[in-house]
Amino acid sequence: MHWELETLLDKVPYPLLGLKVSLRIQEHLSRRYHLWMITDYESRCVRRKDLLEKLANELPQGAIRYSSKVVSIEESGPMKVVHLADGSTIRAKALIGCDGVNSVVANWLGLQKPVYSGRSAIRGFVEYPDKHGYQPKFHAFFGVDGNAEQDSLKLKQFVLNKASNVSKELFAVVERTTLDCISCAQLKLRLPWNVLLGNILKNNICVVGDALHPMTPDLGQGGCSALEDSVVIAKCLREALVKPITDRGVEQEDEDEDEEEFIKIKKGLEKYAKGRRWRSFTFISAAYLSGFIQESGSKVISFLRERFLAGVTIAVTLRMANYDCGKLTVS
């Protein structure tokens, strides 16, 4: 079970706000917020470690190189030369940067560095080997504090203090969480217009996931959007590469084949970039606005939030998650 408490670094306190959403919420939301456009959705929380292990197990042995941080990138004709922290280099016809918020690849492309949102998130993970018995519901609670501690014991005590007015069941979830499963991190985002107008692709070098669209976690779509990117880019590259190669003379076959493959990769990545640019812009913008509405201490925003904005943010969150990026064809 995963839990999270966000803190807004502000000196003006405001009451702890609570929001509870059932996985099948059409009837409740329609009655409370008159949101007729919402249909049944399902939201599941997956432990990142388990997901990564499952994906890694599907790859050939040795396909993943660990402790291989990218230091610099250079071009050698059509080839990309990636220099790693261990001193080794990799040559490739294309480079897809999946190196996170502080992406070296994004920096090479000229994208601006992500900016601090003014908020931090305290996260925890607690295991129930014999099942927890809770209903499949999502609870979000927002707090405020002037400092973001890194000490796990202080973080846990802070959350317990903030959760003093919640149910005993929720309090027990935090209380059960071990210190090694609690962390705190600043929430960053890339300015959405930078994704819309900046270079997300150049000479067969592009970015996906947090390297492309780092966002605040208010949509719960960080990992999901990275998987979306991966499926879309794989489809685009496959469609581009499976097209038949035109006939050519034997003496120029090898040279022409390399050049044509480079062009095909370029077209595939261009299709990916075109399709994901607006989606990335929407992700970042919707996440930030959703968080702002939920956490704002403004009397006007608080009034509107209680009347209808809370329902709108829920609707936006679910609509953003309801995205079909298609299926990969395995051959």
TrEMBL record:
Q: Which GO terms describe its molecular function?
A: monooxygenase activity
Q: Which domain of life is it from?
A: Eukaryota
Alphabetically sorted, this entry's keywords are: Monooxygenase, Oxidoreductase
Q: Which InterPro entries match?
A: FAD/NAD-bd_sf, MOase
Q: What is this protein called?
A: 6-hydroxynicotinate 3-monooxygenase isoform X2
Q: Which organism is it from?
A: Nicotiana tabacum
The organism's taxonomic lineage, starting at the top? Eukaryota, Viridiplantae, Streptophyta, Embryophyta, Tracheophyta
Gene name, per UniProt, is LOC107795169
